[in-house]
Amino acid sequence: MRIKLDENRPTRLVSVLSELGHDVDTVPSERIAGKDDAVVWQAAQAGRRFLITQDLDFSDVRRYSPGTHHGLLLVRLPQPGRTALFERIAMLFQVEDVESWGGCMVTATPHKVRLRHPASV
What we know:
Structural class: alpha/beta
Number of strands: 6
Helix content: 25-40%
Strand content: 15-25%
Shape: globular
Number of helices: 3
Distance between the termini: 24 Å
Order of helices and strands: EHEHEEHEE
């Protein structure tokens, strides 16, 4: 899977996700940290990448309708410190069928994963 990590994701995720076979890019490495969400979104889409973020601006399912993009994981933790984010995202990519998440809007909380699939034609 081609992944873009939004800014403020623990940098050690790059190596963990890469070791799992994913092609990982980050917002800071692309030098768009601090830019408008539209810039981050466009970069992820232009690179055909699955975006991992905790930015609630990406939670609008009408704006980011499943099937209209390459996939989006919104991580929602009550205590979203770097360690908690690292552990939750790393665990998801180790135990979930993330390859099936392409085009989906995925929301992960501490105990649940909610997938919104593209609408069937």
